[in-house]
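This part of the workshop introduces the protein records we will be handling. Getting from the letters to the tokens is the skill we practise here. The record below serves as our worked example for the rest of this section.

…
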Amino acid sequence: MGRFLWAIWPALTLAIALALASPPSRAKAGEFEDFAHAQEAYDAGDFETAVTRFEALVGGAIPRLTQRLLIIESRKYLGASYFFVGRRRQAVEQFEALLAEEEDYQLDRVLFPREVVDLFVEVRERVVEARRRAEEQGQQEEEARRRREAERLLQERARLLRLQELAGRQVVERENSRLVATVPFGAGQFQNGNKPLGWLLLVGEGAALATAITTFVVYASLPNDPNRPPTDPAAVEDLSSTLRVVNWISLATFAAAALGGVFEAHLSFVAVDREERDRELPDDLDLEGEDPPPPEASGGLDLSLGLGGVGARLRF
């Protein structure tokens, strides 16, 4: 009697679990009857028949059974039956399918021989190791994806900063005139952007012209100055000669400098003058004061990008 109870105890336990898990129905009762019928062959040691009956329940790609507990139990007994008839590969497949349904499932060492339990443990260890490797690979791939995304966002931010820099500068173009280049006193040089030479010509030509005008005025006033006291005629003649020489030299210097400056201005003529100027940007375009936030403690990455009225906030 005790031996009989020990034999039917797994089926009795399963029946109680199914009764507690869901309300009874005709379909579910039929599934349990099919399972019990297959288990009878297994308990009787008729493993070939047990294989045939359990295959009808869970042997296909989609199990005929609908109850999860029955599916797990059927795969367990089908795997054991496969082992006993020498179909080890199919036994391994059923144990793998069982562990896919219940990854922490333990095979009862009292109900099953050591060889079956050892095979099940071997399959479970392999499945656990494969799952661990898959998780590690998934984590590595996720970290690599995050790094690539972070690098892409940093490159995008650098590109936006470059665009901001370009947007903050404006180029002003001004067409130069040949007529201005013909004007003395360094006007052509200033127009061409050669300020040092322009200042040199302005000061030099101005000084030469001022000297020429001054000497001419003094020379012209010598004979007609009523307030000039009588002097030696020889001294007056010497002064007049000196003034004429200085006047001629200053005029020649002015003419040479003016002609040389005009020639140089035309020779170095710049048709279009380009000048870069700073341009003030709106506040929503200013990225300089915004540092990309570091990855959060949870391993995510939060970067904000914006340009003009378009903005994006991405978190990983």
